[in-house]
Amino acid sequence: MDKEIGNYLLLKSIILKIRKKMMNTNEEQINSEKADETNFPSDIEKINSENTNSLDDYNFGWSTYSEITNGRFAMLGFFAIILIELLSKQSFLKWAGLL
Known about the structure:
By secondary structure, the protein is mostly helical.
């Protein structure tokens, strides 16, 4: 029993050390990204000025808004098919009379 507890505590301490190293690595990466942002403000301003197309604006054709809307309707349709199969206890194709 004591050996199991000792193994558990050893593994727990190893996991905590790994997490601490990962957090330090993430903090260093964030700090380096912040330093990059301060060194090149003109590039960031260019990117922000080029991205004036809002997701809420409807544009005809292949636009971000159209793709998001299409994806949402596809998810609703897929959910409806699953709901029909669960409530009717038969496949959608059989329920629709296609099989």
